[in-house]
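As described in the Methods, two query proteins were run sequentially through the folding procedure within a single session, without resetting any intermediate state between them. The first query and its resulting structure tokens are shown here.
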Amino acid sequence: PTECFLSQPEEKQESAVKAKRRKKKKISDVLQKSAPKPGVPADLQNLLSQHFGGNRSVIEIEELKLSDSCFLPANDLTHSFSSYLKEICPKWAKLRRSHKEKKSVVMLVLCSSALRSLELIKSMTAFKGDCRVIKLFAKHIKIKEQMNMLEKGMFHIGVGTPGRVKALVEQDALCLNSTKYMILDWNWRDQKLRRMMDIPEV
């Protein structure tokens, strides 16, 4: 009887520890259960003002604001990636044919990871037609290789991560003057359930 009696509090302690462990996972559980919402221009505007608010003057922050005319309708989450691109860019074939500049792309797609970039490249086959896509991320591809490719070849769509795109722009390897569309992969979450905009480096 004493042995049974002694084992009871230990069981309670174990169950208490398990309960504590479960509580720690609640944030990700909430994120998992919360339904994704379509992005709106205000989301990006708020993010920019939060990021630059501390070290910019009021006038500089005003200059950072983009008018609503700069934004296309966001994916209302009923579209696949290809069908969304077809909706926002109905004259893609004409744009693709008229693009002749090297070191530039007509459409730039930004994602949070290399794997996600590859996923999006595969899913846009119905849209892209006879055009060249360049991978702009760091995984298995050196920056020098990408610089050479951009200098020698002509590409229509660039899909990559913000870090690598920024590095290429800073080194004048990627010119954004002829870029007509910039797509942000806003709602996709990684294994830690972070969106691209939740990653501090971004």
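Immediately afterward, the second query was submitted; its sequence and tokens are:
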Amino acid sequence: KGFSSTFTGERRPKGDRIFEALGATDELSSAIGLAGEFSSEKGHTFVDQLHKVQCMLQDVGSNLATPLSSAREAHRKRTSFSEKPVLELEQWIDSYSEQLPPLRAFILPSGGRSSAALHFSRAVCRRAERCVVPLVQAGEADPNVAKYLNRLSDYLFVLARYAAMKEGKEEKIYIKPEP
């Protein structure tokens, strides 16, 4: 009948922003899964990190599916989202960034299949973040969820550049068309 239940048992329309955020997060995990498969074929060592990210996205979904306005303490305790995964992403970003040449132009999604799939994942991540921020602002989700998605998109960008570099693939740069 066009309704679904949150983890707290509350019935909401399927078009509710909670379900939009959950759907975007699920799409993100799927996009990362595809990027992980392409990256695995190339022997990239960061594939385990992508798997860990997919597991964290399950925790993101649990937090989103538990609106704080209807959550009891037991719900909140079970689906809380800490800052620790955010800090781990920042460490990964720093580690890969140190190995990359500095950015001198806008990078277009490119650089081989692994890199392009990671860029696509980054774009899906940005959409998920846009869906989650209003929930955080409304007090329905943990602010660390939005922080995690924000840092995840940066991680995916850096990882896309790293994959292209490791595979010896050229990253296409933006060139302004002449009028």
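The radius of gyration is 18 Å. We note this only descriptively and draw no conclusion about the first query from it.
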